Amino acid sequence: MMKYLFMVMLTLMAASTLSIAEANFSRFRGENHDGVVAGEKGLMRAWPEEGLKELWRIKLGKGYSSGVIYDEKVYVHDVEKNKDIIRTFDIANGQELWRCAYDSKPHNSQSRANPTVDENHVVSIGSDGTVACVDRKTGKLVWTIDLAKDLGLAITKEAKSSKLAVYGIAQNPLIDGDAVIIACCTPKSLMIKVELATGKILWTTDNPKQWTMTFTSITPMTFQGQKHYVYSTFEGVVGVSATDGKILWEYPEWKAEIWNEKADPPNYLPVIPSPIVVGPDKLFFCAQNVGKLGCLMLQLTQAEGDGIEPRKIFREKDMASGIQTPIYFGGRIYGNGTDDGFICFSLEGKMLWRQKKMGPWPYLIADSMIYILDKAGQLHLLDASVPEFKELAAWQIPFEGPKYYDAASWSPMAMSNGRLILRLGDELVCLLVK
């Protein structure tokens, strides 16, 4: 009997453990670009009284990069001694495996975004606009492109016309096949496709309307068999053909141009949340509450000939996520509200529930549960399988140093095989949730 029970336990453990390939979280918002951890099963729905087990904790430089996961390794964009550095750690114990430092001038001496990883490459964009490609296995620098020097992006504080002068760049690159896609938003180029192996630019999207860069990242979408790269600029939303870089459609009514009068000095505040795909033909957008932009649902429709026309379904003011990109899951949209709370929306724009004091900190969904950090440093576990608000667990994460509401704790989470990676101030922490 005991032997039988032991075999059953082994079977259940194997069924809930993903293979190394299945467990990758190799890019911003995960493998499917949706904030949902693919394939995770068997995660705890109640936590021990003593809290979750901490596997490791490491110190980082200033910034917002919180890491992605590939082949049991964590990849982080860090800054040290005013240099950009790609660092790699063993997810099992936090041991550093290699680091690659390269010439750059990090804006405000901070990292802003996460790397993107495939079998052979790690690609990251520094806050000064330096795109770096590193060999994943050796940590050797393969190539760099300076978006400012090489392509003419206005970013320095001396370039008064630049809307990025105060904050720098915070774009997560998109690896697609053997190339990386970057929304460079220079006077001549809106988007570029770069060969991973060589750094050669394969195609360029023209930028006749001089649309400019925000803090959003490119979202891939397939509509009626054609892949698009969707990007939200200061002046509107654009869909670009993945085949040749031609612009397929535009929606200038969503202007992500927010003038932040309260800042010192007053400046343009770039929209941060990226577009999210909702089903086969819809896209959802939101922005921080400073500019009262709220949120927008678009539907793509086939126009005459080969044309594509985006059509507004609804626009609401209540969901105005300042930092985090919302998540579409189970026919509902989860995100931050106008009061820095956490809210759940229907696809028709109806608010289903609102929970205060849970924003604008990071969250993700795994095994039909929401993991969300609040401003007091509590990690909450919510049930995403039901339409109503239902909390399953909460735990105060031990922390010394800067307070949890330090901006660096806004960084997105990642997960692989029940190991949750999150950034708390200047520390990267790995927690076991299985």
Describe this structure in words.
The strands form 9 sheets. Strands 1-29-30-31-32 form a 5-stranded mixed β-sheet, with no helix packed on it. Helix content is 3%, strand content 42%. With 434 residues, the protein is mainly β. The protein starts with a helix and ends with a strand.
Strand content: 35-45%
Radius of gyration: 21 Å
Number of strands: 35
Widest beta sheet: strand line-up:
1-29-30-31-32
Bulk shape: globular
Summarize the structure.
The protein has one helix and 35 strands. By secondary structure, it is mainly β.
Q: Which short descriptors sum up this protein?
A:
single chain; 434 residues; mainly beta; 5-stranded mixed β-sheet; 4-stranded antiparallel β-sheet; 1 helix; disordered N terminus
